[in-house]
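On clarity, I found the account of how folds are encoded harder to follow than it need be. Since the whole study asks how a given chain folds, the encoding of that fold should be made plain. For illustration, here is how one protein appears when written out as sequence plus structure tokens:

:::
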Amino acid sequence: MTTTRRTTLIAVMLLPSLALLAVFLFLPLVRGIQLSFYSWDGVAPVMNRVWLDNYTRIWSDPAFLSALGRTVVWWAMHLGLAVGGGLLLAALISEIRWRRAQTVFRSLAFVPHIMSLAVVGVIWSQLYHPTIGLLNGFLDATGLGGLAEPWLGSTTFALPAVGVASAWQAYGFYLVIFLASIQAVDPALHEAAAIDGAGPWQRFRNITVPSLHNAISLVVVLAFINALKGFGTVWSMTEGGPDRSTELVAVYAYKQAFGLGDIGGASAAGLSIAVLAIVITVGFNRWRDRAATGR
């Protein structure tokens, strides 16, 4: 096959995928950028151009800044619970020597990730229910009833409670990435360390974690992106309440668009976060590359 025919064949095979990307990704992105410069309620036949007024208004809105702060907290929880939990479980599963048992545990651990966010929200809403929920029931049964809370109705505990539910749904994805990287580590390193008397924790800290440098960098970026997209679990459990205590930027933008009819403001909020995510991701990758090369 000639180079021209090969190139043509590749282009033809990629065409359907490129068409789908154009329709469902690039066109909505261009439309969102356009709408961010207009004042529009989504219904009126006329859109008024306001240029950067939407961006100025959004970034001077205390509700948006508070939502941005909660999104940072959400990312920190996601990083600690989902990523940390995925790494810990991956290390434990990798220690299982019976392959069939390892496959079973890996599959079970991945189950939450394939659940829809709405289902996860319903399950955890029931667990947190103040009267019939398993969490408060367990606290009462163990003599710790004084610690029981209306978890999703508390401005103090609602965000951590929803964060735990989101981390439970997401940790399986990170577990698979970490497990694949752990299995790529040379077993001879662990065997040599074990002969020298290193225990499981020492081998994990001194061999496994340093060997996961690239995987950890990838997962940190993915966790940051997932935190910015935190909408489904929050909306299905609290809709951003109580008193906006779980309102992330994604929820804020949704309410601006479909609650207040401020399509331009919602687009500006979404694009602001997208640009912020790109800047932080690029900056993190450059820092990681410099740290890896020692420059």
